[in-house]
Write a structure and sequence with these properties.
This protein has 5 helices and no strands. It is mainly α and about 130 residues long. Helix 1 packs antiparallel against helix 2, helix 1 crosses helix 5 and helix 2 packs antiparallel against helix 4. The chain is elongated, with a radius of gyration of 17 Å.
Length: about 130
């Protein structure tokens, strides 16, 4: 259950910001520079929060499936790709602040890794739905 909660928070938050919130801010008439500032600040916060959630998901996966699952399991590979995207986002943000397209690229890699991760089964369930015991 913790796997699904963390996944919902970071993947949902990433997509909600760019598909839901930022377009609405443009529709209500906020200044474009203000929207850019809000986007920059919230994107960085969400990527940092995503990194924390990813660490928790890595711990859940390794506890459930073993350490080798990080390299051999698609969920582990997607988690590592998402962590790499978080790292690249912050490296570009701090060392090449003028390269905003690379920041956006890292953000998109993080978002699409999250979407693919949502489609994978929860660790420990073996791809089947748990049944309640009477």
């Amino acid at each position: 259950m913790l796997w699904q909660l963390t996944q919902m928070l970071w993947v949902g938050g990433l997509w909600l910001l760019h598909i839901g919130m930022l377009p609405v801010l443009g529709q209500i008439g906020l200044a474009p520079l203000l929207i850019d500032e809000i986007s920059s600040m919230l994107s960085a916060l969400l990527v940092g929060f995503s990194a924390a959630c990813l660490v928790l998901q890595v711990l859940i996966l390794t506890q459930s499936e073993g350490l080798r699952s990080l390299w051999r399991d698609i969920r582990g590979q997607l988690l590592l790709m998402a962590m790499y995207a978080c790292a690249m986002y912050f490296i570009v943000r701090f060392f090449l602040p003028e390269a905003q397209r690379w920041q956006l690229f890292s953000y998109l890699i993080l978002g699409f890794s999250g979407l693919l991760l949502v489609l994978q089964p929860v660790p420990g369930w073996g791809g089947r739905v748990r049944q309640a015991h009477p």
